[in-house]
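Postdoc handover notes: sequence design on the structure in folder B. Input tokens:
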């Protein structure tokens, strides 16, 4: 099912559906950023210096790709002075705007597979939450990300784990007409760690998250943090 239409249809029930992937990715984002900030030396730019902060917030500006209904925007606004929150779906954005009315968040409807004309500054954090599975060619995306980041800036990627994809898991939801499956493309761990190097984005953290923290099963979420050198 076409991604834009799917998420427009899904928006009304997205926050209330039982969705382990949505919930675990939200947890992984929070844990990843807190761990990164609290690590020895804290967040540092590519030259090793500490980033300038205001009001004790570690990020000056964040570009959130795939903000959806704002589930992670609520977390990000605790860590960034300003957020540009982008999504393909108008209906998902409407839900997000209803949650967050602060002028610190600028919501934008855009297709990230086209030129990123919504970018109006350089950011020190770019985040992707359950977005890249819907993109067939990641190269142009990482190129745009690199052009959007300040030197030393970070990229957070939270995705359905490739192992889950290999087993046939895809974004899906129930409607009166039956199960709707969103268009998805299989990506591999190396697509998130090695491909970005071509654009000056170096992996600094890779982690996996499991249902109920049971590491005997297949991981549900893959998180990767990249840094622009």
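Designed sequence:
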């Amino acid at each position: 099912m076409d991604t834009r239409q799917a998420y427009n249809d899904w928006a009304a029930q997205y926050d209330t559906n039982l969705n382990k992937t949505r919930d675990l990715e939200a947890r992984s984002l929070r844990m990843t950023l807190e761990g990164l900030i609290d690590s020895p030396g804290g967040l540092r730019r590519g030259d090793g210096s500490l980033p300038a902060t205001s009001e004790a917030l570690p990020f000056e500006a964040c570009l959130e790709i795939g903000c959806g209904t704002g589930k992670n925007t609520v977390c990000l606004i605790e860590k960034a002075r300003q957020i540009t929150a982008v999504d393909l779906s108008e209906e998902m954005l409407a839900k997000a705007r209803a949650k967050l009315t602060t002028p610190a968040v600028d919501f934008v409807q855009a297709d990230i597979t086209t030129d990123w004309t919504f970018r109006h500054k350089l950011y020190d954090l770019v985040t992707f939450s359950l977005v890249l599975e819907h993109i067939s060619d990641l190269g142009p995306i990482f190129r745009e990300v690199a052009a959007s980041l300040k030197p030393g800036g970070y990229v957070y990627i939270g995705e359905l784990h490739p192992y889950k994809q290999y087993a046939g898991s895809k974004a899906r939801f129930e409607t009166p007409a039956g199960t709707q499956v969103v268009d998805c493309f299989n990506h591999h761990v190396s697509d998130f760690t090695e491909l970005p190097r071509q654009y000056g984005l170096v992996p600094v953290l890779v982690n996996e998250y499991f249902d109920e923290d049971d590491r005997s099963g297949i991981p549900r979420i893959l998180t990767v943090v990249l840094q622009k050198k």
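Context for whoever picks this up: Helices lie at 3-14, 20-38, 73-76, 90-99, 139-148, 162-166, 189-193. Don't rerun without checking with the PI first.
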